[in-house]
Each structure stands twice: as structure tokens, then as C-alpha cells.
Amino acid sequence: MPFHPPIRLRSLVPVAVAAALTTAPAAAATVQQTLLTCQVSTTSERPITFEPPVGLLPRNVTARASIVLTGCASSAPSAANLRSGIMTVHSTGHASCAGVRDVRGKGTITWYGADGRQTGVSTVRPSVEKVAGYNPGDMLLGGRVTKGSLAGSNLVGTATPTSGVNSCATKGLGAVHGTGRITFTS
After folding, report:
1. DSSP 46
2. Would strands 178-185 and 143-148 be described as parallel, antiparallel, or unpaired?
3. Ranges under pLDDT 50 in the chain
4. What SS3 class is residue 7?
5. Which of 7, 135, 165, 178 would be a feasible disulfide site paired with 159, CB 3.0-4.6 Å?
6. DSSP strand E in the chain: where?
7. pTM for this one?
């Protein structure tokens, strides 16, 4: 099994002037085993939504999404039958266009196998102390699986927007579409 260090979340909602996304250094003593990696995306009908809209100044924001997980791959026996899923999640945090902190929330992932049949359900607890990037949407892609398939694993993700986000600082951002990757580690 390959070993990978923890991955820091990247931006889904970059500020227009931010040309690069930030990543945090990996902890030197922590080695994580990758259990499952999936592609993630919003659907055209269901973007990630922010209430109230994310703006230039930090404030408490609730993010909600129904994210599609596809192309899931694993060499871990505990995840061998997980090929796709739907993650429905909401979380709150103190967010602005420049980042988010104190994230808490809840969600579920309904898993499907290669045959398209449901293979399990996971309860997810989004939880991030601080995302030092340009993405309040990252509050949905980090946390821990607390129950069900992959219970006890951590989840981390990277994503990029597929819809316009340039007006975040000036007009606020109430919704965004995006694609990326999510990884479950032990």
C-alpha cells in the first residue's frame, strides 16, 4: 500500500487577484494510508450554496451541497466495493473570500458499487480548524467519517471552481460549481 502525507485543502472560491492556491506543509511524523480516492463535482442543478453569501469580510456562513463522487479507486479491502457516491453535507464556519475557520457540520455519503447498487452509507463530520486558502467551500471537503463505510477515516479534498467567482469580494458569492478530488485516509 502506498503511504501519503496528509493533504491540505485547496481553493474552490479563489479571490480574483489570487493567482496561486496555498497548501500547508505535511506533518513530519504523521503518515496516512490512502483508503479511497474519488473525483468530486457539483451537479448543474445543485451548486454549493452559501447563506448568507460569502463576502470580503468574515462572518458566520452555512454551506450546503450535494456532491457527486465518481471514479472511486482503492487498493484497501475495506473500500474495494465503493465505486461512486452522493455526499450530502452542510457545515458552518467563520468565512470570507480569503478563507474559513472553526468549521463544524454533518453529512452523509450514500455509496454505490460497480453494478450501480447501493453498498453502504457513511456519516461524515466536516471539521476543519482553519483553511488558509481562498475557499470557504473547502469546509465541505475536510473532516472525518464517524459511522458506516470507512468509519474512522479522515477525508480531505481539493477542488477548483467551474463557475464565476470573481465577484466574491465586491458583490458576495451565494453559490459556486466545482470539480476536484477527495481522499479518504486511515
Report:
1. B
2. unpaired
3. 1-28, 132
4. coil
5. 178
6. 3-4, 32-41, 48-54, 59-73, 84-96, 99-112, 118-131, 143-148, 154-161, 173-176, 178-185
7. 0.78
